[in-house]
Amino acid sequence: MGPFGGAGHSLEIAKKLSDNGMLIGIDRDEEALSAASKRLEKFQNIKYIHDNHDNIKDILEKLQIEKVDGILLDLGVSSYQLDERNRGFSYLGENDLDMRMDKNQTLTAKVVVNSYDEEKLANIIYEYGEERFSKRIAKNICEERKAHPIETTKQLVEIIEKSIPKSKQHDGHPAKRTFQAIRIEVNNEIKPLYDTVKTSIQCLKPGGRLCIITFHSLEDRAVKKAYIDAQGKCTCPSDLPYCVCGAKSEGKIINRKPIIASKKEQEENSRSKSAKLRIFEKS
Asked: Which pLDDT value is given to residue 5?
């Protein structure tokens, strides 16, 4: 059995499982689950779960499944969500400020932008977007919303563009980092991630593997730290014949360096350039 977060890789997994196993597709986005179910309609060995992969342990308990053979977590926003402009994830065009992966939740990008105080906004944009002009952007957002609510992606982009000096707007679109930061805040993508990785490892059978695809440095650092901690490290002096420090290991890291897309794939799909795959095997 193999649950995974993000239904995008479901076709290849379903083909490999054939009739000999079960695929559990977990996604917060009901539209993604609907698209996956249509694409995989000829397969009968799939369960579609509208939930958050952070809740994987509870999901498996409800399904009366104790352990699984493998887990794939495909983190962050999907190409489908980016391309559906009305979802508000993209800084291109003019759309409603939404950015929710799960449309049933109440927190939206519009709420964040129009209700968070200046300091909190600046901290989020700096921490989650690694944007060095975060204070200026937050200040201008707060000034703008005094006159009228900020309701569209275009309004937010214009504020960001005037907040960053033209001479510094050379590293991609100037709104990219801020949009990433607000999206992460809306969907709470980083805070639970370390615990989700550790819980996912606990849900594996011995020899089972956890594969995680990340798309930015904050995700990758959280996954890397969780893997290192799960692998454990003996701190005993090298001259001792056996371990006495009590270090426990849940398994091993398969690839020390992340696996990245081939040059050919990066040329064919520019979004794959930032993708990093890390794998952990349960002992």
From this structure: 45
